[in-house]
Amino acid sequence: MQDRQETGIICPNCGKESTFEMWISVNTQQHPEMKQAVRDRSAFVFKCPECGVETPVDYGFLYHDPDQQVMIHYVTDDAQAKKLHEVLSDNENAKVLGIKNAGYIIRIVRSANQLADKLAVFDAQLDDRIVEVYKLSALSTIHKEHPEFSLDTGEFVFYTDEEGSHKLQILNNGEPFGSIGFNMDAYHKMENDFIGILCDLQHDDPVIDRQTAIDLMKILGDH
Ligand SMILES: [Zn+2]
């Protein structure tokens, strides 16, 4: 399968058109250098051959790490995401089920921030559902202290800093709003709350986001 495709791109600086290679599917076993390049976004920069100016390019692709057994579909188009969600959550689909049974975690994300978040969560070997529950709790805590932090558009991106500490980057209306530490004791406490409630990671819904956390809190309340 072809993993890249060439496309025309117009430089926002000089207005000249050049070709740019877009990834359709990144396999980190075939391209180990892409592991880091996806994480630091250096794989998604267009360097204009005419004027040398670098421009970030944001587009969807499949991130496939066979060693870590992670497949993350970054999808920017709503209709495409809906269709893919149907296919990937269909447990009658033998091919999809086979991949999940082999131990793969399959996810769909809708933004570059969500992709960065999932990658860092799985790198830290955490459960992304519990991380979403943690974020939901942090959302209301921060909103109470800082009412200008929006409950609707406020979001968190999990990351691990250079010292190896887990943190949440806070975004308010897409703008940086600081960061907070990610308390592992609190995480493990939440994880314990959901013992016997959650199915295994591989067989859960491919979309794990804030709505997942809201649904899980409701299930916990009814339990
Ligand atoms: Zn240019």
Topology:
Elements: E1 4-10, E2 17-23, E3 25-27, H1 33-39, E4 45-47, E5 54-56, E6 61-65, E7 70-74, H2 78-88, H3 94-101, E8 105-109, H4 112-123, H5 128-145, E9 155-160, E10 166-172, E11 175-181, H6 184-193, H7 210-222
Parallel strand pairs: 3-6, 7-8
Antiparallel strand pairs: 1-2, 4-5, 6-7, 9-10, 10-11
Bound molecules: zinc ion.
Zinc ion binds at residues 11, 13-14, 16, 48, 50-51, 53.
What would you say about this model in short?
The chain has 223 residues and is an alpha+beta fold.
Please tell me the overall pLDDT: 96
Major pleated sheet = 4 strands, mixed
Low-pLDDT segments, ≥5 res: none
Which band does the percent of strand residues land in? 25-35%
Our measurement of the CA-to-CA distance between the termini, rounded to an integer number of angstroms, reads 46 Å
- What is the number of independent domains? 2
Give the ordered list of helices and strands: EEEHEEEEHHEHHEEEHH
Number of helices: 7
Share of helical residues: 25-40%
